[in-house]
């Protein structure tokens, strides 16, 4: 039941998010049979961040629009990543914070044993701070959940 060293899904999502050349890593993702998507969102409302990531994952075929369990798994991975970028305070606008974020969603099986099934990772990177340009700082969050 060990993780495949070269197929750590959270690491892969984070690298995909942070690299300047997404094409190479996206091709590697496809070669190992995984699915992925990238996107951007800026908001003062956390529900808009969640919605943007869910819509991108559905539109780009990372999760099925018809299967609730896939949306549910994605939701929990997003929440875990949001806890990372908001330092556990799941509030944005109500505490006068705004975010400008990029995200990556990766779906696949990171285990040697295929019976472990698929997992989903959400990596989020960007800026967070007061809604005044120039007064924000970097932030990074990662969430991983089984499907």
Automatic annotation (TrEMBL):
This protein's encoding gene: hutP
Stored HAMAP family: HutP
GO molecular function terms attached to this record: mRNA binding
The protein's name in its UniProt record: Hut operon positive regulatory protein
Keywords: Activator, Histidine metabolism, RNA-binding, Transcription, Transcription regulation
Transcription listed as a keyword: yes
Quaternary structure (record): Homohexamer.
Family named by the database record: Belongs to the HutP family.
Pfam families in the cross-refs: HutP
UniProt keyword Glycoprotein, yes or no: no
Source species of the chain: Robertmurraya siralis
Top-level taxon in the UniProt lineage: Bacteria
Classification of source organism: Bacteria, Bacillati, Bacillota, Bacilli, Bacillales
A GO biological-process term: L-histidine metabolic process
Function: Antiterminator that binds to cis-acting regulatory sequences on the mRNA in the presence of histidine, thereby suppressing transcription termination and activating the hut operon for histidine utilization.
InterPro entries reported for this sequence: Regulatory_HutP, Regulatory_HutP_bacillales, Regulatory_HutP_sf
